[in-house]
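Box S2. Input/output pair 1.
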Amino acid sequence: MKYLVRILYSLIIFILANSYSLGAFLPAGGWLWLLILPFLGINLVPSFANRRLYSGRLRSSGDGCELLELFLISTGLSILYSLIGWFGCLPAGSLIQSPKLWIVNTLIVILVEAVVFWNGMIRIYVTSVQLGIKWRVIGALCGWIPVLNIIVLLKMIRLVRQEVVTEHAKELEAQEYREEKRCRTKYPLLLVHGVFFRDFKHFNYWGRIPAELEKNGATIYYGNHASASSVKDSAEELDARIREIVEKTGCGKVNIIAHSKGGLDCRYALSRLGTDRYVASLTTINTPHRGCKFADYLLSKISETKQQKIAGAYNKALAAVGDENPDFLAAVGDLTEEACRKRNEDLPDSASVYYQSVGSRLNRSSGGRFPLNFSYYLVKYFDGGNDGLVGEESFPWGERYQLAVADGRRGISHGDMIDLNRENFEGFDVRKFYVELVQELKEKGF
């Protein structure tokens, strides 16, 4: 039924687009313009099947794909029809007999098809998550290159179609257990970001993860600390933040989930600043507990003059996004293998806090988004298997350790573990992973 409706809609668009030439040799051809109302209806609601999708965003993405497919079908029919007419195979429509007819007809075709195309394209550009910046840019650049534009358009339609199907299926699955409030832990969650990022209101460092946790009953707070500081300075900020949350809410303690360097900052706070009395558990995600040999190598090979120049540029950029006193070199220096080794000797774990850790692994460099696809082999040379930034041997800490892996060519990168790119891929569902992670904390009484 769906395909019959698509064919009918394509024919309506095709007939309206070519109504000028069709009216020249069809009896009472003026009735063709009555198709304007159905045409407007198609552009408003191109697919009734999409009305069943759970969100307006997915409905709009699905409708956008439908319009682009109708565009491809009806445009293909119009091109075939026009070629037949231009070569004089139609009784009243050859180019030789009536060039004006086919010129006007072509202009109307362009106008009608442009309405369908841009209606669909705007919908997917505005609502799709999986297109990302990459395919939006490729679509804009290749839009005027014959043949290549069709290939790119088909790829974009496939990506968005898959997004609609996947997200709808995930939502249906999630609805079955959300009433159980699996993530309603005894203590609220504190999400702590890694180095060179901040917690922004309109761009969540943790991607779609917090929203999914909240739908499952979680209460969430953020570290809100500087993006580039030494471990000690970041720990002091986090200590103040945790005490503020506990004082204002009366929650008693928090469960910390910290990514990358954030895990080092939290361990320092728990061990040195007395923050452990306000923390029930610490879960570190892809944290370089034993440092990065790659960082040692870079600092040893780059001259101090160049280091200062690079640091100055970064500090200036970081200050522009909110850091009061960014210190690029202090942040990077605390990630070296030597710095982490000394810190591990001096920072015993708190006996009152439950420690656990998570890591991930890329299967090949192309599995990581820029710049992790470039750093993968460099890190592999010094640290072995890695997530594009940190070696596997550096991840484990605490009573329990999980290594997240995905079969196939891709693997799971440092950024994938916080849903940085909001990307769906086979073999790993990051939102489901965090729901299960927090559910386990709940089951442990935290």
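Box S3. Input/output pair 2.
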Amino acid sequence: MRYISAAETAGRWGLSRRRVITLCNDGRIQDAQKVGATWIIPETAQKPADARVKSGRYIKKCEEKSNGSPN
């Protein structure tokens, strides 16, 4: 298996190097490994799906919690 750096992966996926490192730290890139202080990522790794909430439901739930609190 051939590995590439976080910077090279970022260029291929159109992300920042920091975002790729965060995905590695969160375990969202399969088979990524940390060697010393550097992340190496399999050349064939797939870009993880965007996990952000797009419906706005999360925001509404947070507002309900803050409005319903006894404070």
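Caption for Box S3: The CA atoms of residues 20 and 26 lie 10 Å apart. The beta strands are 3-5, 33-35, 38-42.
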